[in-house]
Amino acid sequence: MKVAVLSPVAWRTPPRHYGPWEQIASNITEGLVKLGIDVTLFATGDSVTSAKLFGVCDSGYEEDKTQDAKVLECMHISNLMEQAGNFDIIHNNFDFLPLTYSALIKTPIITTIHGFSSPKIIPVYKKYNASGHYVSISNSDRSPELNYLATVYNGIDRAHFEFNDKPGDYLLYFGRIHHDKGTAEAIAIAKKSKRKLLIAGLVQDETYFREKIKPELNGNIQYIGNAEPGRRNELLKNAYALLHPINFNEPFGMSVAEAMLCGTPVIAFNRGSMPELIKHEKTGFLVDTLDEAAEAVEQVKKLDRRDCEKWSSSKFSSEKMVSDYLDLYKKILAG
Fold first, then answer.
1. Is the distance from CB of 148 to CB of 110 less than 8 angstroms?
2. CA geometry: angle at 245 spanning 240 and 250, to 5°?
């Protein structure tokens, strides 16, 4: 079986800091190679992989702003589609645009829908409902207008994360600095529970950061910037709990699964995929208000961190994800 994995070209695959779609594309690629599958990764030229690598650019357009994103995306996708006949199956991790080539090639395309940036993109998916093979990353993140082949949860490379049953006393916020992800709410929870809070992540909304976050920073509330993979493990495994007070319906939530893999419980607003990721009162707490979240911080000491690790390892490992996708490839190729 020859598989082409299509990754985005905003960031390197795997990303140096932020880039969840690129990270999953990398985990799929490396997992397939370990199983002896012939894989070609289509990504930025500076990507790191044990598979064959094809790239039309030296680096991602978010890392080199001199590049035009639309031009790069068109060149990148067409680069794969012009070689489609060399592969048995294409695994698209690059949203809806590659689907517009699907009727022009014979190679089947399986598309992992990593989330909907807007309802306006759904008509493209609908157009290819009959011929597309769509996979959701959680049962909650599905459009009733689309046909799905399966749900496959995002998988984490467990080698990059360590279990720790002797954490520090700080709370951690790990994610984009944006209203949707609830950075300001995490600060409010930390203040209510009188705990130190470390904030790590990409500042996606500069105005939000300047107006809602920066004025709150002090010795007890610290923004420590974006975290590289090694630092990510240290922050997650040593945290007392991860705060995830989202203001939108999160499609998945990589940091939630990663935190639990380290043994760190998660306190999250009960929205989107959170009930699928967190076992309430076992690996964390699903809450609806800031007061409930602050109360949950006090209940974290009752949880067994080993339960968090076992749950995440069994549900959200890269091995399980890759095995699930390989089964889907075989199903598609068998017709």
1. no
2. 115
* Residues contacting residue 88 through CB under 8 Å, at least 6 positions apart: 1, 2, 3, 107, 329, 333
Distance between start and end Cα atoms, the chain: 15
> Do 3 and 39 form a contact (C-beta atoms < 8 A)?
yes
Q: Which residue has the tokens 């794969």?
A: 80
Alpha-carbon span 156 to 160, nearest angstrom: 8
pLDDT, tens digit (0-9, with 9 covering 90-100), for 71-110: 999 999 999 999 999 999 999 999 999 999 999 999 999 9
Q: Which tokens is 178 given? A: 């944006």
**pLDDT, tens only, 149-162:** 999 999 999 999 99
pTM of the prediction?
Answer: 0.94
**Rounded (5°) CA angle 89-62-49:** 40
* pLDDT band for position 181 (cuts 50, 70, 90): very high
